[in-house]
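Title: Prediction job returns without error message
Component: structure pipeline
Severity: low
Priority: P3
Assignee: unassigned

Description:
Job completed but the reporter wants confirmation the result is attached to the right record. Sequence as submitted:
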Amino acid sequence: MKKLIYSVAVVMVLIMSSSCKKWLDTQPRDGITRQGFWKTKEDIQAAVSGCYASLLAPPPGVNDRALTEYMFMFGEFRADMIDPAAAALTDELDVFNVNITDNNSLVRWSAFYRTINFCNTVLDNAPGVRDVDPTLTAGQLNAYLSEVLTLRSMMYFYLVRSFRDVPLKLTATTRDTDLQNLPKTAGAAILNQIVSDLKTAETGAVTSYGNNVTDKGRVTKFTVNALLADVYLWMDNYQGCIAECNKVINSQRFAMQSAASSWYLNVFFNGSSTETIFEFANTGAVSNIFFNLLVNRNKRYTASAYLPSDVFIADDVDPDRNFDIRGDAFYNTSDLTITKWGTENISFVNWQAYRITDVLLLKAEALAQTDAGQEALNIIADIRLRRNAVAATAQTVDPADKDGICDYILAERSREFAFEGKRWFDVLRIAKRDNYRRLSVLLGMVAQTVSPAVQQSALAKYQDFNSHYLPILQSELVTDPQLVQNPFYTR
């Protein structure tokens, strides 16, 4: 174990060290990674472990936010579930006021590209280990490659949903000669690449590593299926989404837990629950960044003030005994402090990438779009029953009303995945469908959440579809002259 821990530390330093400001230059520049490493299957295991470690924290000596913080911000700060707290940064206030510029430090994408490059390093170098380590089987190699293909796909999926068109780099940067300036690739092309990679990953991924904790904290075949279902729904490929969801559901390996007091503790705090498909497992090695972000007295975000009245509505008969278990576990109604990711310093709550409820609601949305509305409504009803949702948040929807069902799903997802970095993407997915036929969904959210002083300006900006994607940071444009700024931010 000590040897493995040392190997992980070494490969993290090798893979993560950087001396050049170019975002592609995330490898040491002397070739040591290939020449001094990649000799045994244990080296591959250590490198893959390094990829997972990059999900939780930046490498030593790198002054950047954790990847999970960017995931949280990109999925939440343009939506309606959080508000700025007293300690919010100026750049954060600008985002909340729909005043985003290419100098805003929050639109940095380097954390995603670091992990992409770690994955590329494994993909480039791991196959050669079979030439020098006869104990490495083809099945073991393919399983490792499937893990990093899936992690890379997840990173690109976040980038496409956040920036749309971004540079696509599928090989590792390891030496000066590897450095290159890359133009942006169309988001649609990157989505196709993601689909292709995930189909490849599925063929080599394992169904189980033999123990529950590892099955939840490492990529399995079901992680691949869940991510691909999410991608397909974003692409409006409803049958593809349903097929991938069914693979997860029909495996019978995942199940919602009952509405008991231990639900939150089991799923989020302890982790490795029956609900979890894939989580960023934090076993105490890295301090949870969300304490300082959401809980302490200098916190930067709180829950939105409208949640008690519009999302987690109190039961109008007996609110002390009848209440949605999610609201009580996710935030404090008294001061709107978000408690979902832990309330103690140091806390180690696991970031939930996918749970079975996510897959069920993805399937429900696809079903609604394929004239299977009643089946979609049945899924919603089952989840609400397990979460002890109150009658005040129930909706009566015609099974033939696609838009009505999707609105119901959107409302249910706001309760189920509050503060999980999914809300903006959920709203944008609904709004952009059928050539932005339902832009009003996004505009309605903006009208409800932005300050009245900037409301008309914000609504005017969001009429431009290009504004729904973040700008490329100005320093990236300077570093890479082939990059072109996203259209909305060139005016």
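Comment from assignee: result matches the submitted record. The longest helix spans residues 138-163.
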